[in-house]
Structures are given as C-alpha cells and as structure tokens.
Specification:
CATH topology of the largest domain: TolA/TonB C-terminal domain
Order of helices and strands: HEHEEHEEEE
Largest sheet: 5 strands, mixed
Shape: elongated
Number of domains: 2
Number of strands: 7
CATH superfamily of the largest domain: TonB
Distance between the termini: 84 Å
Number of helices: 3
CATH architecture of the largest domain: 2-Layer Sandwich
Structural class: alpha+beta
Strand order of the largest sheet: 3-2-5-7-6
Length: about 140
C-alpha cells in the first residue's frame, strides 16, 4: 500500500513538472524566420531619454501570441535599459500570422545619424522582413 501511494505521488509530481519544463524548453528554443510573418505593426519613435543621452543599440523582444497572432506578452531578452520600455510597449501592439508555437521575436535597431544629409530632425521607422525594425533619428549635433 505504501509503495502504491509513493509511486502515485511520484507520478503526480512528474506530471506537474513536465509541462513546466516543456514550456521552459520552448522559450529557449530557436525561432526560425519562417515562423515569423508580420500582419500589422506600429511605428516607434526614438525614446526621448535615449535620444537625449545619445543611446544607441539593439533590443530583442520575444513575444507570446494568442490564436489570432496578437501579442499577449512581450519580454525583452537583451538591450539597453533606456530602449527596452518603449520596445516592449511597441511590441504589444503588433500582430503576426499565427504559428504553431505562438511565438515571435522582434529586433529593434536604434541608431542616431549626424549626417549632413539629414535635412530635418525626427525619427524614421523602417521594417525589414521578417522582424527587423530600424529606428533612426537625425539628431542635431551639439554645435547646432
């Protein structure tokens, strides 16, 4: 009797742990570009504090999707602390073609340009398929 109870308890415990480990493994697995197809996105301007401090860099955001491909959760997995909040907030507005794993990744590339060809200040947003968003701001130099 004690062996049966112990065996059942062990079986129940393993069933509880299995889904958690499967979810963890899924979060750590590679997401192929073939799995990512953007249906709708929202442009993102350069975050003001990052612009003021001349912060540039890349932010990678991992999203969890619902059955319709809408983002239900977004988490930054790398990037500057000054760029992450705006990137995560923006990612939550996107929609993707639903995929079997219900995940997608967005890569945000923030760059400042001081080139003479910048005729005006302000942010410019471009999306390169499947998931690479570039935000460039034609910032004025200190002398301006």
């Amino acid at each position: 009797m004690k062996k049966t109870i112990a065996r059942n308890a062990l079986l129940a415990a393993s069933l509880l742990v299995t889904p958690i480990s499967c979810v963890h493994a899924q979060q750590d697995s590679t997401i192929s570009d073939k799995e990512i197809s953007v249906l709708d996105f929202h442009e993102l301007g350069y975050p003001p504090l990052a612009l003021q401090t001349r912060t540039q860099g890349v932010v990678v955001v991992r999203t969890r999707l619902d059955n319709e491909g809408k983002v239900v959760e977004a988490v930054a997995i790398s990037g500057s602390e000054l760029l992450i909040p705006a990137s995560v907030a923006n990612a939550k507005k996107w929609q993707f073609q639903p995929n079997a794993r219900r995940v997608a990744v967005i890569v945000y590339n923030f760059r400042l340009s001081y080139a003479a060809k910048c005729k005006s200040t302000g942010s410019f947003f471009t999306l390169e398929a499947p998931n690479f968003a570039t935000i460039i701001d034609c910032a004025r130099t200190i002398a301006d």
